[in-house]
Design a protein that fits this description.
By secondary structure, this protein is of the alpha+beta class. Helices cover 41% and strands 18% of the residues.
């Protein structure tokens, strides 16, 4: 690892990053909605064989993404943060300091409470399987700021930053599992005097246990790009800053099953692929419907071009024939059923993360109390993800306390954050909800009854308003993004 930070670095990515990059790209597109999916064009909506560019462009402009993935992630996050995150003293006696309370009230220096910051960070990490919390602290002039009053007047305190998985280009750990190096790409805006407009650009933060360096592209983007390696060259701005903490304050959390350091697939990855498949199949189905809507006029016998209209008479030769050829509808019905099956599959994939493992009873029938414990409990994918995030949040708060001087390297945290959500439904509930979805999709159950059954099983919040949701469903019946 670096003894001293280099003056120049590139935007090269680590091996774990490269293995996950395409899946993050797909997930970000799904989270972005219809507009973003359309901008990706043939990446997620391939052109059909012999489909002209004009016809494809028209089909793409009509393609709409049904937000199965986005809603499943949002729903699961809502359950995980069903009640706010709490922070309490470990010994149940220590009073939370004013500086720590300031972090709880405004975690990211953007007026977001710790609960709001945590919810937003968890949601993105849950979608991708991986996320990071970085603890930032203001640099300051030690000759100007010396006393407690100076710190308070300058409003200097550590704060939390959420770093999406795709923004950590590379990282490394030592034998004890401590991060010793991280390369983080940061997006920011600056005013371009030549263009007289604000533009978005990037810089790289290189963090080691000893130093922190900031790098920017200090030449034209074209010259900074290396076509052979596909990377940009960044140059250090000023001099590196000393890392007073002596640690890299970057905390990863894994919401998917960790395969190796800094690598974990999304717990909703199957749903993501199913959502893309639905987007493609629905577009093809809609194109087939629009084609089948217009019957083809076919004729036989000798004759010239004729006009067809409400005030026209068609005179045919003696051996002539004229008729409409219409689609039988069998293929369209098969396409419709395929879409319904994909909807049910998407629903199952979305519920999978909430399903509690009920195998702990050794195969015997569980009592009502045991089933209730399964519900409260501890073994759904969502609960595992929440536990990982809770650990990361507490590690980040330890870094905050270390910056504040409230703990030393060999001391435990004085405060503990706790998530208070509802993390699972029983496996039986998941199976029953699947059956209910099939009945609803087959038109054999009213939407109101379906919502009522979801509420009874605790899969929606207590304040879920069935009447308003029914009204919304009716108003958006023809809008795949609305319902």
């Amino acid at each position: 690892m670096f003894e001293t930070l280099p003056r120049q670095i590139t935007s090269a990515k680590g091996p774990a990053y490269k293995r996950q990059e395409l899946e993050w790209q797909m997930i970000n597109a799904l989270l972005g909605g219809t507009g973003v999916m359309r901008t990706w064009g043939q990446t997620y909506l391939p052109a059909l064989d012999n489909e002209s560019a004009t016809r494809y462009k028209k089909r793409l402009s009509k393609a709409v993404l049904a937000p199965f993935f986005k809603r499943a992630v949002g729903f699961s996050t809502g359950k995980a943060f069903f009640r706010p995150v709490t922070v309490k003293a470990v010994d149940k006696k220590t009073v939370i300091s004013d500086k720590m309370q300031a972090v709880i009230n405004d975690a990211n220096r953007k007026s977001d409470s710790l609960n709001k910051f945590a919810s937003s960070a968890f949601k993105d990490g849950l979608a991708k399987g991986l996320g990071y919390i970085y603890v930032e602290a203001d640099a300051y002039d030690t000759t100007q700021i010396r006393t407690e009053a100076d710190f308070k007047a300058a409003n200097i305190r550590p704060y939390l930053l959420y770093i999406p998985a795709e923004d950590v280009l590379d990282a490394d750990i030592d034998a004890d599992g401590n991060i010793i190096y991280a390369k983080i790409i940061e997006k920011y805006t600056c005013f371009n005097n030549e263009l007289k407009a604000t533009e978005e650009t990037t810089r790289i933060r290189l963090v080691t246990q000893k130093e922190i360096g900031i790098y920017e592209i200090q030449q034209t983007v074209t010259n900074a790009y290396n076509q052979k390696t596909g990377t940009f060259t960044y140059s250090m701005v000023g001099e590196p800053m000393k890392n007073a903490l002596g640690k890299v304050p970057l905390v990863p959390f894994y919401t998917g099953e960790k395969t190796t350091d800094f690598e974990a697939p999304s717990p909703f990855l199957d749903l993501a692929y199913t959502n893309v498949q639905y987007y493609q199949d629905e577009s093809t189905h809609e194109m087939a419907i629009s084609t089948a809507e217009f019957p083809i006029l076919a004729g036989k016998g000798k004759g010239s071009d004729i006009e067809i209209g409400p005030h026209k008479i068609v005179i045919l030769p003696a051996d002539g024939d004229l008729k409409y050829v219409e689609h039988s509808g069998a293929a369209l019905e098969a396409g419709r059923k395929n879409l319904e099956e994909l909807r049910i599959k998407a629903a199952y994939c979305g519920l999978k993360a909430l399903a509690a493992d009920s195998s702990g009873a050794g195969g015997r029938t569980k009592t009502a109390s045991e089933a209730e414990m399964d519900y409260i409990d501890n073994n759904s994918d969502l609960k595992v993800a929440a536990d990982s995030f809770e650990d990361a949040l507490n590690m980040a708060l330890w870094y905050v306390q270390r910056y504040l001087g409230e703990v030393q390297d060999d001391e435990q945290s004085k405060y503990m954050a706790k998530m208070n959500g509802m993390f699972s439904v029983t496996a039986n509930d998941v199976q029953e909800i699947g059956y209910l979805m099939e009945l609803k999709n087959a038109g054999q159950m009213r939407l109101e009854t379906f919502y009522g059954e979801l509420k009874r099983r605790g899969t929606v919040a207590d304040n879920f308003d069935i009447e308003s949701e029914l009204t919304f469903a009716q108003e958006n019946a023809d809008n795949p993004e609305g319902v």
